[in-house]
Amino acid sequence: MTTPIRIGSRGSQLALWQSNYVAAQLRATGHAVEIEVIRTIGDRMQDPAFVAPATFADGSPLDAKGIFIKEIEDALLDRRIDLAVHSLKDLPTTLDRRFAIAAVPVRADARDAFVCEQFWGLHMLPLHSTVATTSPRRKAMILALRPDIEFVEMRGNIDTRLRKWAEGQADALVLAAAGLDRIGRAESVHQRFAVDELTPAPGQGALALETRSPAHALDGDVSLFSAIRQLNHAATEFSTQAERSVLAALGGGCQLPLGAFCHHVDEHWHLHAQVAAADGDAVVYVAESAPVGISAEEFGHRVAATLKARGADELLRQSTIDPVPA
Fold it and tell me: Considering the entire predicted model, what is its pTM?
């Protein structure tokens, strides 16, 4: 392509790292790339002085996932940008038909990380210590491991949360390991949780390269889609599709206390999934394997059915979900 591929990105340090990472890969395949920073409602909500509207400007409902992607998708539709780089876990399980995930590059560490200067693991924290997280999933799974833990609401980008933690606003912080690794801020990570302890959010650690759908776009978008598709990593794509299929089968909301993680070992796919009661009192955990050749959707639905058979639906119904995203 002779014209530059225009990438739309949020302005946080992590979002810009991700966009520059993708830009470097595209440039290595011979494409010119430009990055445009787009400020979303989700970004503005981190400012205490900002009053969130009841709906987006076009009247559509303000939802947990949409606050970080709506303005970027609008820029795609307006053709101001050609490509959006998202954290995959921020995307809804079902995309608007006008958009497509052109590629899912190789995934970074999907696990959750325990950040603490003094103590080397969650189990070492003194009784009634405080942990900063806004994620219902992390809260529920941490309480299943340590029912005495108390939580501190801490919003903002990674640097903001690390600064607040360093100021003493919490004893420890739990964040996605991938984000800390990507921006070089993993110096105080003293534990990376096993996937059967804190099962990661579906798609955690993976990027989604979103474009206009070739089926609902101009001819030039088809060649654009093909160019971006070269960055796809097949194993990561399968794994994240299976994880997101579990989430879709159980309701599809990013605020569910549900984790799913899939990986490939010894010619088999292995899918771990966990649903925890909001208070941590009950947990349903499933780990299943399937041979290569199964579809990601079939595998995810199969694991979701096992979760439901073991009572996951009831735990989800009982959970109190905070509508504002982490």
Answer: 0.89
